[in-house]
Amino acid sequence: MTFSFDDVRAQALAWPGVEDGISYGTPALKVRGKLLTRLREDGDTLVVTGVDTDERVLLMAIEPAVYHLTDHYVGWPIVLARLSAIPDQSSLDKVMGLLHRQWRAVAPKTLVRRFDAAGSA
After folding, report:
1. Other C-beta atoms lying within 10 Å of the C-beta of residue 22
2. Extents of the domains making up the chain
3. Could you read off the pLDDT of 26-74 as tens digits, one per residue?
4. SS3 label, residue 69
5. Are strands 45-49 and 34-39 parallel, antiparallel or unpaired?
6. Cβ–Cβ contacts within 10 Å for residue 113, how many?
7. CB atoms within 10 A of CB 78
């Protein structure tokens, strides 16, 4: 099974405030104008924001085919995820978990509280 940006997009758009956007000329998902994630120019790599250095190292050690980094992102709280290398739904769920955590960090607190109150977490 191969996953795509559309799979990520379909799940993330269910979170309040998430909207389609463009970042560096590629499809992106934003929360009230703040970047949540974007597809890199290769059409296969997802830029996953909100991942600190320690967690990034761990992710790259556990699933090196999926998680990686380029020199461009070394100083940033970001990990890259190869969508075509995600082996199964469980691994996609992990990526979505990272994105959901970042959504909670950048979304307005009123949206997060409403989401939690609805039992959607």
Report:
1. 10
2. 5-114
3. 999 999 999 999 999 999 999 999 999 999 999 999 999 999 999 999 9
4. coil
5. antiparallel
6. 11
7. 18
Provide the mean pLDDT of the chain.
95
pLDDT band, residue 119 (cuts 50/70/90):
confident
Model pTM score: 0.92
- What confidence score (pLDDT) does residue 100 get? 97
For the cut 60, the answer to whether the pLDDT of residue 75 exceeds it is yes
Could you tell me which of 10, 71, 69, 76 has the C-alpha nearest to residue 45? Answer: 69
DSSP-derived 3-state class of residue 47? strand
**Residue 12 to residue 15: CA distance in whole angstroms:** 6
CATH class of 5-114: alpha beta
Q: Tell me the C-alpha distance between 96 and 8, whole Å.
A: 7
